[in-house]
Amino acid sequence: xxxxxVRPHLSVLNRNQVEQVHRYALQILxxxxxxxxxxxxLQQLDSRLGLTxxxxxxxxxxxxxxxxxxxxxxxxxxxxxxxGSPALRLNDGRMHFGVGxxxxxxxxxxxxxxxxxxxxxxxxxxxxxxxxxxxEVISTLGIVQDVPQHLSDLYxxxxxLANTTKPLVLLVSDEASFPHILDMYASLCDDGGDxxxxxxxxxxxxxLVMNSGTLEKMHVAIERGLPIIFSNYGMAGASxxxxxxxxxxxxxxxxxxGLVISQAMHAGAPIALGMLPVYFDMKEMMNFYDPQxxxxxxxxxxxxxxxxxxxxxxxxxxxxxxxxLIAADTYWMNSLTYSLRGGGLAPFIGDTLGxxxxxxxxxxxxxxxxxxxxxxxxxxQLDDESVVLAxxxxxxxxxxxxxxxxxxxxxKTGYYTSQIFPHWSMEKWQAAGEPxxxxxxxDYTTDLLAQASAPEDQADLLSRGEALIARFQSGSL
Length: 477
Prior knowledge:
alpha/beta, TIM Barrel, 2 domains, eleven-stranded mixed beta sheet, globular
């Protein structure tokens, strides 16, 4: 039976180009190699795959090792909410979005002023993201700074857990705290171990270094059966070649090395791979997204489709000075193109000012962008019923479709309606006092923040979690 749905789809690489990029990545792995800063991982690679290194800890990965790892890794990842109900499946052909990540500052939605990110900010932002349905995962939203520094990851992770039931993408800077956070989560939320709601996120150090902290945390997560994200952050012209092709090949080589390492740790370990490809401005000493970055992200999605593995790509985040025109450029470009790609995870929405701050206003505005881009990616129906030939013939030239049966049936869902910005005429806008669109967004965001409620077990989780952190601090945990 023919498919009557018009489905837009965007790809960057054809099959020959996909295979060519794969060959480039394999050549980098065989010739240049990757530095592995972990004696445990070096031993695993040697004993399980015969991959050896010298005193420089450089491992040169064989084609056979990469092919084995590509077969060993599962093709999809099922995530649950923390109550054990299925939430989303990665690599199911759909786009999934999330918010975060690891900001130092909170940007007030009314004034745009910055303040140090706090526990209160983590709680309110988690609840806000929970109230917006297109955000299916919540990543670590910031680095909590109103607690002792060595406890920041613990308190931040507790607030994140207690203020949402959605799946979490967990980023932890201190590898010593990482197992304690997982212990705390396991103690507070006993899901039997087979319904993961936490997906830790790890980065290597470009170019071509698997740093010990990342590898130690990977080992802990994989030992516990958690799915992981392995994603690299490449600054073209600094940590990767300035050409899009060079960055793509080098970053892909790192991802394949991370894949091999994950499977050497445990064959069949669930893993999603992806890149955050940015450019580096040597004059301003800033990184930024460029249209070529978007193409590299899409090319990476093509490669992961070729491999049959889940893709975790860029969210276009970090640009602009808040929820402004600068940020809108990148968020629109990334969300639309990635949605048209047909599947993946974009987990880092809402941060701004070079990812140093997080803006609830940006988070709310991008939810509107996602609403529209998903509407584009869903396409439209093309069949006899949708073409309404009988209506056209009945209404005749010069008629009106205002009262047509199809209009009456679909006028509420037939076109996009913003939850923030009304479809006002000039006269109605003038009558309303000529409001500023930015202030309408600010007021709407402020209202959502005030209305977003915590889960009913929040107080209990916070109480028990704080007791666990106190025991950790005293050394009795």
